[in-house]
Amino acid sequence: xxxxxIRENEAGQRLDKYLRKLLPDAPGSFIYxxxxxxxxxxxxxxxxxxxxxxxxxxxxxxxxxxTFDKFSGSSRDTIKELKRVPIQPAxxxxxxxxxxxxxxxxxxxxxxxxxxxDISANEHMIAYLLExxxxxxxxxxxxxxxxxxxLDRNTSGILLAGKTLRGxxxxxxxxxxxxxxxxxxxxxxxxxxxxQLLKGYLLKDERENAVSxxxxxxxxxxxIETEYDPVExxxxxxLLEVHLITGRSxxxxxxxxxxxxxVIGDPKYGDPKQNRIFxxxxxxxxxxLHAYRVCFxxxxxxxxxxxxxxxxxxxxxxxxAAAEAVKx
Length: 328
What we know:
The chain is of the alpha+beta class and 328 residues long. It has helices spanning 15-22, 28-36, 65-71, 73-84, 121-131, 137-142, 165-177, 251-258, 272-282, 308-327; strands at 2-5, 40-42, 58-61, 92-96, 100-105, 146-147, 156-162, 181-189, 196-205, 210-214, 222-233, 237-244, 289-295, 301-303. A hairpin with a 4-residue loop joins strand 9 and strand 10. It has three domains: 2-71, RNA-binding S4 domain (Structural Genomics Hypothetical 15.5 Kd Protein In mrcA-pckA Intergenic Region, Chain A); 76-177, Pseudouridine synthase; 181-327, Pseudouridine synthase, CATH 3.30.2350.10. Strands 4, 5, 6, 7, 8, 9, 10, 11, 12, 13 and 14 form an eleven-stranded mixed β-sheet that branches. The radius of gyration is 24 Å and the shape is elongated. It is 32% helix and 26% strand. The chain is built from ten helices and 14 strands.
């Protein structure tokens, strides 16, 4: 017999949903049969599976060890894999409390898996929580912390994760309502001197994984708003802070490119000639777009420092400007 006490992260869900997480390889018919035969009971009583769990409830499984191991096998295998995931050296935590984790994702790392074999920021985050004893293996059988927002693989910066059910619900609510403000830093082609709000419509080609920007609405086009403010100017280039008001796929990169200010290093929407200049001069081989800060509804602000390659590009531009000033 195995007994499980319901904790905060598991409370509120139906018993049958909880059992499917506990025994992921068991057919639904097996779970309901065990409930009918009282081989699985809730607080010592027969249960139907539709009951909603509360903190402190006891779920008892009167199953042989062989049966339990057989039907919980894939969950245990997943946990073993997670325990082998290294904590990415470039992966840094910029804010953490009891419920949420904010990390600074390096460029080149996936936010979440695209294929089963991928190791993404989500797996590195769980490995970190296991390493720091915030999570236990038992926790992972029935609750899985998760990344709540996504960044393109070659975009660096802030990723938000819920460590607890409360944290997941809070972050998901703020992202859905757009009450959380998200700001990015990017280096773009062109001299931009004024703050501006861009509006338009975005259409994504799923097959090509690319988007197009339009000024007028039409079927399948999604409304977007992108606000930018110049932070530093370098003659032919400008460092922008971009307020991502709507969060669509490739929105910042495509919207800025549509007005003639592509992000430096962007292989999809950028200027190939400009990209080559920065690759040769500063070793840049990805888009210089960084999720820089978030402002939560409670007034807290979290900032993720620019990565080394981004700082190197800015240093090269400042050095070039200083040299030109001396010549002048």
